[in-house]
Amino acid sequence: MLSDDMDMVGADAGPWARASMLEGQRVCLEPLQVEHAGEMALVLDDPDLHRFTGGSPATRAELAKTYSRQVAGPADRSQRWLNWIVRRLADDQAVGTVQATIGRKEGRVVAEVAWIVGTAYQGHGYATEAAEVMVRWIRSQGDVRIVAHVHPDNTPSAYVARAVGLSPTDVVVDGEVRWLGG
Question: Does the structure show a pLDDT above 50 at 10?
């Protein structure tokens, strides 16, 4: 069931709840704010994080600009952009981000999801737990198809996709395999 505090995201995307604080066993997902740019620039400051997606680490100012756009969402409101900072519950340390782009495709609500965890925090299951918390919340909003795009050589990300109930397809978009669930 969709909650009562939803607003329209555009006639094409349907109603969606705003991102709210979500909690798992070891991590919480805090809705993204522009003010997170400083700490996240440190967490994401590793060229290896861009090995599969291209680019390079963003500066604090660049992240603030990106986060400002993400928080505002698309001007045409045809989609809902939901973005969270992933924090360890034990010490409130930011370790990464998760995001979902909610829209309609072929008459169905679709959530395109993604995750990234800083190099220093990888290998501890934070990406998997954060993605599971996010996807569980998305699915609680109603009948939603979950989609992720994972580079074929990114084994850890493929593991996360499988853990949240997605399966790889034969479709490749911009060098990444499309994974589907729901």
Answer: no
Query: What local confidence, expressed as pLDDT, does residue 51 receive?
Result: 87
pTM: 0.90
More confident residue, 78 or 4: 78
| CATH 3.40.630.30 matches 7-181 | yes
* Residues in contact with 39: Cβ distance below 8 Å, sequence separation at least 6, in sequence order: 94
Buried b vs exposed e over 59-91: b needs ≥16 C-beta within 10 Å? Answer: eeeebbebbeebeebbeeeebbbbbbbbbeeee
Q: Which helix (H) or strand (E) holds 102?
A: strand 94-105
Q: Give the residue extent of every domain in the chain.
A: 7-181
First to last CA, the chain: 16
Distance between CA atoms of 138 and 16, rounded to whole angstroms?
9
Residue 169, exposed/middle/buried by CB under 10 A (0-12, 13-18, 19+)?
exposed
Angle between helices 155-163 and 126-140 (to 10 degrees): 40
**Measured distance CA(100)–CA(151) in Å, rounded:** 18
What is the rounded average pLDDT of the residues 38-63? Answer: 92
